[in-house]
Fold this protein.
Amino acid sequence: MEGHALPRQKKQFHPSALAEGKLLWKESWEMSQIILFDLDGTLTESGEGITKCVQYALSRFGIQEPDLEKLRCFVGPPLLESFMEYAGLSREDAEKAVEYYRERYNTTGIYENRLYPKIRELLELLKVNDKILGVASSKPEVYVRKILEYFKVDGYFQVIVGSELDGRRTGKAEVIEEALRRLDLNWQRDSVLMVGDREHDVKGARECGLQCIGVTYGYGTREELETAGAVYVAESVEDLGILASPNDEETTEHVESVRASGKKRHVRRHRRRHGVDSGTENGDRGAAGTDEQKEKATLVKDGQPVGAKKEEALTENPPENGGAKDGRAAEKNRETAEGARMAAAHPVFRIWRAIYPVLLHYVISILVVCGMVAFFLLADKMAARPEDPQGTARLVQENNLYQILITSVIGGVVMFLLYRKDQLARKAGFLGRRGPDRIWAPPVMWISVIVLGIAGSQFFNDVIWLTRLREIFPGYDQAAASAMEGQPVWLLMASVGILAPIAEELVFRGLVYRRLQDWMAPWMAILLSSLIFGLYHGNVVQFVYAALTGSLFALMYYRTGTLGAAMAGHAAANLWSLFGSGWMQGILENHPRLVPVKLLAEILLAVIPAYWIFASRRKKSEKQ
């Protein structure tokens, strides 16, 4: 490929890296239909406005920094973290510094900005070659839109995403996830590429399962970008012209519905902004370019046009006799595939996908009970004993722990296969958010989840005892006593203490919670999965206990990044409930005055492990 014919100025992009053989991932980017751009340092040279506003904010704290070059580290990363790291400000002072920064930025700093040379030509080139473009920036979204509108390039982008002014969605991964959500491309990440100039752009993209191109004409260095994991480093805007390589027909059709819906949104936004009915022609012009512009911007490869319209190609090369039939078949296949994708995105499908593992586990438990009934009936028949339905039911109840053990083994294997399939799909970028997929956590985390599981279990049991739920609903104690009294210790430990927690974590955290988190906020997924976990236990006492502990286990999974941590915490809680909670409960009954002291001790016992699980990683992240 010698170069790309540019629209308007007729200049050439020369992807020298390709000619030198450095672009080893050529097959990957050729399939990239959707391209997300960072703003500062990638599309616009905003250093002057940002550094002057930072200088102004620091001066309000008595910190004078006359050298603006030293403040270029603020360009790109979230402001709050940058103020804390650079100036050593506390979080509260850093939040004030952001307010001072915005005082100047809203009126002056936002316009101390310019597009990099040839960016407009690059965007035109990408658009006329059927690329879907978006912006994913850590800058507040209201500013991102204002800047793009100021430079009159907002029409090139189908989605524009930034952070919120209240401090939400500042992480790069969060911004990218929101862009994917708005494009409805959670399951099609293999066709999305990120372009940015700093390491947090690369790391955020990798966290979301995307590849990232780094650019050194912005504010990052080649070493920084390569260390972060950029698949290619472009030294100029011209180098990015290689992104305009045409997509294969299947990839283009794969996202055609996304493009159509995006054009409709662009037209509606344009009409609202200008208060007139500008029509589809004007609304679509900025998003896709006119036919004349497309013809002017057609790429030339090996002397042949590659960006021409498909209709023209069909006219020049009419299909043979079977062409019409093949075309109808291909169109039918495309409609079928599109229907499947739309069904997969439907809320009913998403709810069913999160719920059916619970139903499957329940069916397995019913089948195990039926198998035990059949076994006892067969034993009576072989021993020539008369049929005794009540006696058979009593035997099943007395062997309830064996039923739990067998169900946990069979159900655990089935749920692990489903869980592993999900995680492989997330890792490949075909399913939801990439999310945690680690096996081992640091030793301090394992100790923390075990201690927190024990302390949390005892605390929730005490709360239930204080509210007298067991007296109001005595069925739980009666069922537990008949099922567990007189049973071997090894059976209690194996079934209730180890195997059941593993199987239940695979179902309710590994599948239900993670599948809910694929399309909703983590806190909502934690809440709903915990409620489902409580309802599954079938009585009021266990509903309250399981919902509370389920929230704790989901938080463990969310914060540590490994499902094994939730399993360890669950197992510790169950084992403590079996062998340690009884004598602790006796203390409350015999010495009711010690209740406040006991509750306080349990809370204090949970403080240190809770810190290691929930706060230490956040503190480390803020320091970085």
